[in-house]
Amino acid sequence: xxxxxxxxxxxxxxxxxxxxxxxxxxxxxxxxxxxxxxxxxxxxxxxxxxxxxxxxxxxxxxxxxxxxxxxxxxxxxxxxxxxxxxxxxxxxxxxxxxxxxxxxxxxxxxxxxxxxxxxxxxxxxxxxxxxxxxxxxxxxxxxxxxxxxxxxxxxxxxxxxxxxxxxxxxxxxxxxxxxxxxxxxxxxxxxxxxxxxxxxxxxxxxxxxxxxxxxxxxxxxxxxxxxxxxxxxxxxxxxxxxxxxxxxxxxxxxxxxxxxxxxxxxxxxxxxxxxxxxxxxxxxxxxxxxxxxxxxxxxxxxxxxxxxxxxxxxxxxxxxxxxxxxxxxxxxxxxxxxxxxxxxxxx
Length: 347
Known about the structure:
By secondary structure, this protein is an alpha/beta fold. 33% of the residues lie in helices and 22% in strands. It folds into two domains: 121 residues, Rossmann fold (3-Layer(aba) Sandwich); 194 residues, Dihydrodipicolinate Reductase, domain 2.
């Protein structure tokens, strides 16, 4: 069987992890890398040890070379590049956030529906080993019916990140929830469903924004958002995205069911552990670092390739990711109007 030809659009930080994962999958081959600067594409190819690869500055030229593309460019470019790929009949893995406005989100969704290509939104923590373990435990009734979830994204976002200056404006950064907290927001959706291959849907959002760096003119969007959400399962969720916090990166999780509780990697479930006298610790990798190399890209990209080859839809495709992104935009609407906002927002 011929290997799928893959292109990488963008030669920044995260693209190296995409290339590494594709190289480790025997069913595909990276054949082209495109960037605004040819030197950047060439440098990325050299770093990855790719020799039989085209380095380009023309995205449309890249699309002519490939079956699928990973979009690893700045977030304000994602929608246009996804639409162009879908219209060219190419399968798309788009890094998060996939869109920076509702208009972009609708254009992407409609293009994918029209062209029937396979897609994956880069919400990579669905493949984190702790998330995979928790998801399996919830499906196995370890917690019973989940009625409340919390997930927080806590990381000071500043000059330590090479891309920080590019996202301090409202136009580019949009919000802390769309930029970073979207991982936590997607976590409560994913872990809020007992279906092994399905996420819960958010039906209503109420949100407040705060922090201190916006008032100091250090950036144009609030560094703190705290969101309450209703899920279609009947559960309630609280999600906080805090990019103003002075501390190392943390991603705390709490899940409460009528038969048990999970706090980070600790489980209390007398239903599954009769006679339990202490928390049972899950000995696995937790989402506790901002380093991109720590994230489970291999599982994500193996899943993407499998969906293409076996003609099946991902649980994390663009159609599904619309709900997660809608909730981010609903949070901004709720903060502005000081009232709850119901979903869906798109027709």
